[in-house]
């Protein structure tokens, strides 16, 4: 089935059908890497450090998988909720740790809710034009 020329031009001028998905997932990857690094660059309790680096690794893994399967981005949404709660619930050594984790959690949460562009359905499959 041929794609209408106007649709193809629109995809080329906007960077393609999955630009929003790719940028959002790339931001989540950067946030996950930061979370991992931050676990080791200032004092944390053992539990808070373990929680932080594991969530950083999971954030990166979920973002990478979500590039191919957009629904996986909701795992980062859940991860962000846990990171925010744990920032205040787990015993901490530094106020900086609490605020770093809380702010990163908010950023991950917001970015994880950015959907793939309208070129795919709920499960990430390409949409096909419906002709009447």
Describe this structure in words.
The chain is mainly alpha-helical. The chain has a domain at 43-116. Helix content is 67%, strand content 0%. It has helices at 5-14, 19-41, 46-66, 73-89, 95-112. Helix 2 runs antiparallel to helix 3, helix 2 (19-41) packs antiparallel against helix 5 and helix 3 packs antiparallel against helix 4 (73-89). The protein starts with a helix and ends in a 20-residue tail after the last helix.
Radius of gyration: 18 Å
Unreliable sequence segments? 6-17
The average pLDDT value, as a whole number, equals 82
Q: Which sheet architecture does the biggest sheet show?
A: none
Shape: elongated
Distance between the termini: 15 Å
Q: What is the percent of helical residues? A: 55-70%
Condensed summary:
This protein has 132 residues and is mostly helical.
Features:
132 residues, single chain, mainly alpha
What's the layout of helices and strands?
Blueprint lengths: L4 H10 L4 H23 L4 H21 L6 H17 L5 H18 L20
Helix pairs in contact: 2-3, 2-5, 3-4, 4-5
